[in-house]
Write a structure and sequence with these properties.
The longest helix has about 35 residues. Strand 1, helix 2 and strand 2 form a beta-alpha-beta unit. It is built from 15 helices and eight strands. Helix 1 crosses helix 6 and helix 1 crosses helix 11. The radius of gyration is 23 Å and the shape is globular. Helix content is about 55%, strand content about 10%. It has a single domain, classed as Spore Coat Polysaccharide Biosynthesis Protein SpsA, Chain A (Alpha-Beta Complex), CATH 3.90.550.10.
Length: about 450
């Protein structure tokens, strides 16, 4: 009976890993063959950026000043979500100094209920500010986190013919990059204080610039691009469509960004991904904070599983796009299953090593050999590959040896998501829906604005 159970677990783990390997190959090919988008003219459109601010005194001034300096045509909406620190005073002062800055104050009990409600308040403020006769198809509403820095070329790039220059595109997500400091301007307050902290930030950048970006490139071909919480841009007409059907653009899931993207697709809009411009934000140098953030993301993905049937039955989403979205929505649950199967197989491998002490030939029996191959080829291979890919496509200054080490570290980094998904399941079982805001790394001077992501990446 035990042998049968172990063989079944081994077979199940093999199927899960084989599916994962196939998916990695599927996203890697278009990512490596990707061609650069043609830029457009940002002046052809009107731009509004929502900046949700909840206790952001450490970073908000640098973010707003950076955005105003690099994108003077943007109307900046700082949504103060009943901050308990100096955030409201800072954004009020910025609104007096910088003509393009507006403040949207929120008060309790309506405030501090999540990012989605804050963005809805900003959306209403944008709509109320528009003159009569404004064309919603020419107005773009972006979202920038309070610690975010936008590529100075961003608006021209996403105004291009394959992005908002195409009237069928309702929303665009740009590449997200993770930083812990700005080279040449770094201070002890802006740089991760430990080697582990800097490694965690580098692994987050590898994750977003590597596999997550590759997923989005594949989704671009399938018509299933997902929105992110930072660097998302949506045509006002698309937000109107979602609002007419659901009351507000953003909703109650902890991943309100993913939910918005699904709603845009389900209402007949197209979503697009642009890899040729970026938004940079703080990476998390603390393992505890990283697990907390990923727990929220995992729980938000689980909440969005309710859209699985509408996506699969929608005539507005291609078959390939629906399958890819279904895989993404099921991913947290597959991680739970894979974690169980891997735990069983790992126990088998460990038991075999202990029992075969002094007899290496015992490790070559079919069950033990199968578990070992499963772990090395299907478990590590699809994760290690992203180290060399990161060096090739993102940061050429990384040595081959370090790139390989980053790939190996990626196999350990993945366990952060495994811990997060089990924690998220526990929260769901306890009916917990509260939202814990990610803590900032520390204060940053307004001068700390990166002008090129290459310099940021090369020194991270």
């Amino acid at each position: 009976m035990t042998e049968l159970l172990l063989a079944g677990a081994n077979a199940g783990a093999f199927l899960v890993c084989a599916a994962f390997l196939a998916y990695v190959v599927l996203i890697l090919c278009p990512y490596l063959r990707r061609k650069e988008d043609v830029a457009g003219n940002a002046d052809d459109l009107s731009w509004h950026v929502l900046v949700p601010c909840r206790d952001e005194e450490a970073v908000i001034e640098a973010t707003v000043r950076g955005l105003a300096a690099t994108h003077p045509q943007v109307r900046i909406w700082c949504i103060d979500d009943a901050s308990t620190d100096a955030t409201r005073a800072i954004v009020a002062r910025l609104a007096e100094e910088i003509r393009q800055v507006r403040v949207v104050p929120r008060t309790l009990p309506d405030a501090r209920t999540g990012k989605g409600p804050a963005l809805n308040a900003g959306f209403r403020a944008v709509v109320d500010s528009l003159p009569p006769g404004s064309d919603p198809t020419k107005i773009i509403v972006g979202v920038l986190d309070a610690d975010g820095f936008l590529d100075p070329r961003c608006l021209d790039v996403i105004a291009g013919p394959t992005q908002f220059g195409d009237p069928k595109v309702g929303a665009v997500q740009i590449q997200v990059r993770m930083i812990d400091h700005v080279p040449a301007l770094a201070t002890p307050a802006t740089r991760a204080p430990t080697r582990l902290g800097r490694l965690l930030v580098r692994m987050q950048d590898l994750e977003f610039a590597g596999p997550i970006a590759a997923m989005q490139v594949l989704r671009r071909h399938l018509g299933s691009v997902g929105m992110g919480g930072n660097g998302q841009f949506t045509r006002l007409s698309a937000l109107y469509q979602v609002s007419r059907k659901h009351g507000t653009p953003w909703h109650g899931a902890l991943l309100e960004d993913l939910e918005l993207g699904l709603h845009v697709l389900l209402t007949g809009g197209r979503t697009q991904y642009c890899h040729d411009t970026w938004v940079a934000q703080e990476g998390l140098p603390s393992l505890r904070r990283l697990v907390r953030q990923r727990t929220r993301w995992a729980q938000g993905s689980m909440q969005c599983a309710r859209y699985l049937w509408p996506v699969l039955t929608s005539a507005r989403i291609s078959t390939g796009g629906a399958v890819e979205i279904a895989y993404f929505l099921l991913q947290p649950w597959l991680q739970l299953l894979g974690g169980l199967l891997y735990a069983i197989c790992g126990f088998v491998l460990l038991s075999g090593v202990v029992q075969s002490a002094g007899d290496p030939a015992a490790l070559l029996n079919p069950t033990m050999f199968g578990v070992l191959v499963l772990f090395l080829v299907f478990g590590m291979g699809p994760l290690v590959v992203w180290g060399p890919v990161y060096r090739s496509r993102v940061d050429p200054s990384t040595t081959r040896r370090r790139a390989l080490m980053l790939g190996v570290t990626n196999t350990l980094y993945l366990y952060v998501n495994h811990v997060a998904v089990w924690t998220a399941l526990w929260r769901i079982l306890r009916l917990r829906r509260d939202w814990t805001k990610t803590e900032r790394n520390g204060p940053r001077s307004p001068a700390h604005v990166p002008h090129t992501i290459h310099s940021v990446a090369s020194a991270a």
